[in-house]
Design a protein that fits this description.
Organism: Streptomyces vastus
Structural class: alpha/beta
Strand order of the largest sheet: 1-2-4-5-6-7-8-9
Strand content: 15-25%
Largest sheet: 8 strands, mixed, barrel
Bound molecules: ligand C2E, calcium ion
Shape: globular
Protein name: Cyclic Di-GMP phosphodiesterase RmdA
Distance between the termini: 67 Å
Length: 285
């Protein structure tokens, strides 16, 4: 409470205001941050459940902010989407990741098939007219096969998508780029709708993995995952599960027929060299 005639700028909720200032501050700092090279990428292995081998990685962007330290994508991706900076930022992430993937391929050889890189695509990038040309250009300059790239698009971004929105994804898919439906199972999309989408991979949302934490797991959840996996396989789609934190979850998901897994149980996201070591140990047994 404050007395009448007091400071008119006194705030009702200082914490909410601090958040707003930070949000505003972060938003205005974004473009210069890209110029100054404050973003970096961590890679999290994608593990083939058939033999536990590391066959690829997902690229996850971070911001090393000079005052606030390392910020996760949930802090700044929405701001970058709001201002449109996501387009050059996303292009930068794609370029770095594709070059990194090519580098890993050269260092590892490809006994188990070429090493693959997954990159997240925001809905704003999907509607940007340069998407296909930029992607082709980035792949060509790095010398990476389109089949070694997977673009992850969230289920919610594609719900109700019309043909114009799907056209660039379809062209990329025709070139051999994999499209994954990220956070699958959270968007209430019509399963029959899947046939219409140019996707080749379903990434089951972490919430399903979490429900396997209890032992015995909820039988209804098991049935749901089993159903999704068998539907996916009948449509020729691969299933990746994310958020695997325990060996019990990994076993359960393997039994349910999932193809690929990702999560802290295998490795946290980390620098490129860490991934190189994981994949190398793996390749040499
Ligand atoms: P996502 O695509 O669903 O990525 C998976 C998130 O789960 C990552 O969070 C990852 O660090 C986290 N994670 C991995 N394993 C585990 C686990 O075992 N347990 C738990 N609890 N979490 C796990 P992160 O790195 O904070 O990224 C958050 C989201 O930010 C991503 O969710 C993605 O939607 C977005 N994002 C990240 N990088 C980019 C990017 O380059 N572009 C765009 N557009 N979005 C990005
Ligand atoms: Ca993702
Ligand atoms: Ca996800
Ligand atoms: Ca997510």
């Amino acid at each position: 409470a404050k007395s009448a005639g007091g400071n008119r700028y006194e705030l009702a909720d200082p914490e909410a205001d601090a958040r707003a200032i930070t949000r505003h501050g972060l938003t205005t700092a974004l473009p210069a941050a890209l110029d100054r090279g404050e973003f970096f990428i961590e890679y999290q292995p994608l593990v083939h459940l058939g033999d536990d081998s590391v066959r690829g990685a997902e690229a996850l962007v971070r911001w090393l902010h000079p005052q606030h330290g390392v910020l996760g994508p949930d802090r700044f991706i929405p701001l970058a989407e709001h201002t449109g900076l996501i387009v050059p930022l996303g292009r930068w992430v794609l370029e770095q990741s594709v070059r990194q993937a090519r580098d890993w391929q050269e260092r590892h050889g490809d006994q188990a098939g070429p090493f693959r890189i997954n990159v997240n695509l925001s809905p704003c990038q999907l509607t940007h007219p340069g998407l296909v040309a930029d992607t082709v250009d980035i792949l060509e300059r790095a010398g990476l096969e389109p089949a070694s790239l997977c673009l992850e698009v969230t289920e919610s971004a594609l719900i109700g998508a019309d043909d114009d929105l799907l056209k660039p994804l379809r062209r990329l898919a025709e070139m051999g780029v994999d499209i994954a439906l990220d956070d699958f199972g959270t968007g209430y999309s019509n399963l029959a709708n899947l046939r219409r989408l140019p996707v080749s991979i379903l990434k089951l949302d972490r919430s399903f993995t979490q429900s396997m934490q209890q032992f015995p797991a909820d039988p209804v959840d098991l049935k749901i995952v089993e159903g999704i996996v068998s539907l996916a396989h009948s449509l020729d789609l691969k299933v990746t599960v994310e958020g695997v934190e325990t060996g019990a979850q990994a076993e359960q998901l393997k039994l349910l027929g999932c193809d690929t897994a990702q999560g802290w149980y295998y490795a946290r996201p980390g620098p490129p060299d860490r991934l190189h070591e994981l994949a190398l140990v793996d390749a040499t047994g």
